[in-house]
Write a structure and sequence with these properties.
The complex is a heterodimer. Chain A is mostly helical. Chain A contains 11 helices and 2 strands. In chain A, helix 2 packs parallel to helix 4. Chain A is globular. Chain B has 2 domains: about 200 residues, Response regulator (Rossmann fold), CATH 3.40.50.2300; about 150 residues, Response regulator (Rossmann fold). In chain B, strand 4, helix 4 and strand 5 form a beta-alpha-beta unit. In chain B, helix 3 packs parallel to helix 4. Classes of the chains: A mainly alpha, B alpha/beta.
């Protein structure tokens, strides 16, 4: 029973990280109609800058601010220099250009920081585990990640429903031409939206730094999962990103955790282990296929 | 005037032959310099270059030219580079491949085309047993060796049951098989994770629940960093000891893991503290040249270069295959590992050690704990008909 609670927490934590990534990606796709394969690069930039600042200052808080700012600033620059010229082009051109950006950023990181993975420590005060229930220790840092993720979700919800800019963004995702005609500066709005998306990716990268290897190409491993999340959730929808991220996080974690022991009840140990290994890596794709059969536009499609 | 023209023509005829005789021997290095694994190729290349630089661009007194290309860890790309080396550049000696899947795509083909291949890292079983070949030498190890040594050591320490973890791809299964070949206790679980998996929270919670006496894992590169950090954050490093082959414990990886890897025992054929003259010189020269402690990959690159040097010296700089092969087989060079000779499948017969991760003033590194195997021969040697 305790093991099940622990694995549910693990699933929640993975889901939260995926949410931070997919919220930005889904916004950019939903509002700007642009497929941004380079989203993982901003995650990587956030992690690299944070790891560097943390190494020099020893402060996780400063590292977080620096990492998030760097990711958002790079995002705004990329939007103005590259993506702005692609809005009227076909999706294939966008895919090619943003794929090129992935290579560009991976190489840039290699030139600036070298090939060696960087080290980033867990912030002081969050290094230990706390006993949630008797016999259930859980790393404090992972709980903090879950907490920050919830705060971000609440913040996004407030921003979209209660503020003027949120209203403009929502309007922009429904009818771009109309919003432009009503006197909203669409160019500025797009830069802001893209900056917000990359800021969230940077935040995910900063928070992944102490748990994961900070290395070139780290963005690609999470990018695929992120795409699965937004396809499941419905492209362009924040609510969909929340639902999709939690679903993928849970299914992936629980599949890896419990499939081997479930299969062992019906199969021999060796067969069960190898079947479980294959099945658990397929689980989220099976989930995605099933949801697309049931709801071809995802769980919460953004456009009616 | 006429004489001058004839003289010039004559000179023109002589000059190319003169410069030809002084042409350096080309060595083609196919290695991984990009992607997450890029630092592995960098280490091999830098170790190899160090040996050349120590002789002023020569190996064994013969001028050599090192060509280096990045395969990006992709078998198809490795094949293209090998073909270009062989056909366009006329390369007769190749080395440098990091990954076994790239080696299996490249090596069997080129050694049939009269190219010598000396492996500075990958040692797949497919080239050690019935697939052995006179043109193929492994200077590093056979892949299973570094797991076998841990299996033997864990048995000696007396852990009754061990939990195994590796990525779900052919090399992952090979490495666990290597461990099981020498481990005599029971296996309490055997888990194959996704290749390039980032988060191991689910596996770690399952390990805590299974309560094994020890965990053996093969997770090279970033996967190892992720697992080690998360294992320590879950507090398990204090209760269930970890063991693994050296691939998750090279110095460059350790600096990214930090304290989380301290005290972990791992198997390797080389450590920077091995007490022999060649090794002391190598470690000092490497630190001076690159301002970092060499990893085992660098030591393999360096040994490969010096082995080639010994063969070129014997052949007098000629790339006659039969002469080079015979000279290589003698392994007449001072390896930084100490004992080194080739078995009948042309894989190393060498000592293999258990070492421990420690922290020094220059950063995280390993120290040798125990020599577990002396003159270890790999398991596939007897299947080799050569």
């Amino acid at each position: 029973m305790l093991l099940i609670i622990e694995q549910l927490l693990n699933g929640l934590q993975l889901g939260i990280t995926l949410f931070l990534m997919s919220a930005g990606l889904t916004l950019v796709f939903g509002i700007m109609q642009i497929i941004n394969l380079a989203h993982g690069s901003f995650y990587m930039i956030g992690a690299y800058v944070a790891a560097t600042v943390a190494a020099y200052t020893g402060s996780f808080f400063l590292a977080m601010i620096a990492g998030v700012t760097a990711a958002a600033a790079t995002g705004c620059i990329v939007e103005m220099l590259v993506l702005r010229h692609l809005y009227k082009r076909e999706h294939l051109d966008q895919v090619l250009a943003t794929f090129g950006l992935i290579m560009f950023f991976n190489e840039l990181v290699r030139i600036v920081w070298g090939r060696q993975p960087l080290f980033m420590n867990v912030p002081d005060g969050l290094t230990a585990s706390i006993e949630l229930l008797p016999g259930l220790p859980y790393p404090t840092y992972r709980l903090a990640v879950i907490g920050i993720g919830f705060l971000v979700a609440v913040f996004l919800w407030l921003m979209f429903t209660k503020t003027r800019i949120g209203m403009q963004i929502r309007a922009g995702s429904t009818n771009r031409e109309m919003v432009g005609a009503l006197g909203v500066n669409i160019n500025l709005l797009y830069t802001l939206v893209f900056g917000l998306g990359t800021l969230l990716a940077g935040l995910a990268g900063v928070m992944a730094g102490p748990i994961l290897a900070v290395e070139p190409g780290m963005g690609e491993s999470i990018l695929i999962l992120t795409f699965v999340v937004i396809v499941i959730g419905g492209i362009g929808s924040i609510r969909g990103a929340v639902a999709g991220a939690l679903l993928v996080g849970m299914v992936d974690t629980l599949g890896r955790a419990f499939l081997p022991s479930i299969l062992r009840t019906v199969l021999s140990t060796a067969t069960a282990d190898s079947v479980a290994a294959s099945l658990s890596s397929m689980a989220i794709y099976i989930l995605m296929a099933a949801i697309l059969v049931w709801k071809p536009r995802g769980l919460f499609p953004a456009h009616g | 005037m006429k004489k001058l023209v004839i003289g010039l023509c004559a000179l023109g005829l002589i000059l190319p032959t003169l410069s030809f005789s002084a042409d350096p021997v080309k060595i083609g290095m196919i290695t991984t310099l990009s992607t997450k694994a890029g630092y592995l190729g960098e280490e091999i290349r830098d170790g190899f270059k160090l040996a050349m630089d120590q002789e002023g661009g020569k190996l064994g007194g013969v001028a050599v030219e090192l060509l280096v290309e990045d395969d990006g860890g992709k078998p198809e790309k490795g094949k293209q580079i090998a073909e270009r080396y062989a056909q366009k550049d006329g390369v007769k000696i190749m080395t440098g491949i990091v990954f076994s899947n790239v080696a299996m795509a490249v090596v069997p083909k080129i050694i049939k085309e009269d190219v010598l291949y000396l492996s500075a890292n990958a040692g797949p079983s497919g080239l050690a047993g019935s697939g052995c070949d006179p043109n193929y030498f492994s200077v590093s190890y056979q892949n299973d060796n570094l797991d076998e040594v841990v299996g033997q050591y864990v048995t000696e320490v007396g852990h009754k049951n061990v939990y195994l973890l590796a990525p779900n791809y052919p090399a992952g299964k090979d490495h666990l098989a290597g461990f099981k070949r020498y481990y005599k206790g029971t296996i309490s679980g055997e888990v194959y994770t996704k290749l390039d998996q980032a988060d191991y929270a689910a596996e770690i919670a399952t390990i805590r629940d299974a309560k094994p006496e020890a965990v053996f894992f093969f997770l090279p590169g970033g996967m190892g960093i992720n697992f080690l950090k998360q294992y320590a954050q879950a507090g398990l490093n204090k209760t269930i000891p970890l063991y693994g082959p050296a691939f998750s414990f090279d110095e460059r990886l350790l600096s990214a893991v930090g304290d989380a890897a301290l005290g972990v025992k791992n198997g390797s054929q080389w450590t920077h503290d091995l007490d022999n003259q060649a090794n002391k010189e190598f470690v000092a020269a490497y630190r001076k040249a690159y301002n970092r402690t060499p990893t085992l990959y660098a030591s393999q690159g360096y040994d490969t270069a010096r082995l080639i040097g010994s063969a070129l010296k014997a052949s007098g700089g000629k790339t006659d295959l039969a002469v080079l092969r015979a000279a290589l087989k003698k392994a007449d060079f001072a390896s930084v590992r100490g004992n080194f000779s080739f078995g009948k499948n042309q894989h190393p017969i060498q000592d293999i050690y258990i070492r421990e991760v420690v922290k020094t003033e220059t950063g995280f590194t390993n120290k040798t704990v125990k020599k577990v195997f002396a003159n270890h021969v790999d398991a596939y040697s007897k299947e080799c008909k050569m």
